[in-house]
Design a protein that fits this description.
Structural class: alpha+beta
Number of strands: 8
Strand content: 25-35%
Order of helices and strands: EHHEEEEHEHEE
Radius of gyration: 15 Å
Largest sheet: 8 strands, mixed
Shape: globular
Strand order of the largest sheet: 1-2-3-5-6-8-7-4
Oligomer: single chain
Length: 171
């Protein structure tokens, strides 16, 4: 599996992966990603900021995710719990794995790639959040080595105010 930054010509594949993830979440009865987010707007912005990544195998996109090093306003203070690693961090956001690749460890590999990106940038932690009911994602995060830290309420976006469980990995 290879990882590379997404380009403008990858937008159709990115949107396809996100739409499949939205459908999967809807099937689980979760409200996460059911209000038009993420969309073309996020894909274009993420590509412009060089933070949108693809995981590929033989040129076939298996997953899309964002690795960001800017502080996330939602992570400023946990409503419950606490971050365990002080200082600068990287964040894993908007991850979606192709239905054909689920269960193959692609999410864990993406997390490991983000961990390496954190190390290369001298960051002490990798953080991520998800809907409390997103059990497949929570299981993947725990298998990838993340530790549950607490709860936040999203500070912005179409799901502002929605609860999310937080996880952190020391890098």
């Amino acid at each position: 599996m290879q990882f590379r930054l997404a380009k403008t010509e990858d937008i159709p594949a990115v949107l396809t992966l996100w739409e499949a993830a939205k459908f999967f979440l809807k099937e689980q009865g979760l409200p996460q990603w059911q209000q038009g987010y993420p969309s073309l707007t996020e894909a274009e912005a993420d590509i412009a900021l060089q933070r949108l990544w693809l995981a590929e195998e033989n040129g076939v996109p298996l997953a899309v995710f964002v690795f960001d090093t800017l502080p996330d306003p939602s992570y400023a203070a946990l409503a419950e719990g606490e971050w365990t690693v002080p200082g600068p961090y990287g964040a894993l956001h908007r991850i979606a794995v192709s239905p054909a690749a689920r269960g193959r460890g692609v999410g864990r590999a993406a997390a490991a790639h983000c961990r390496e990106l954190c190390r290369a940038r001298g960051l002490g932690a990798l953080r991520v959040d998800t809907h409390p009911g997103n059990l497949p994602m929570r299981t993947m995060l725990e298998r990838a080595g993340f530790t549950h830290c607490g709860l936040i309420y999203l500070a912005e976006g179409p799901e502002q105010g929605s609860p999310r469980v937080t996880y952190e990995m020391r890098v």
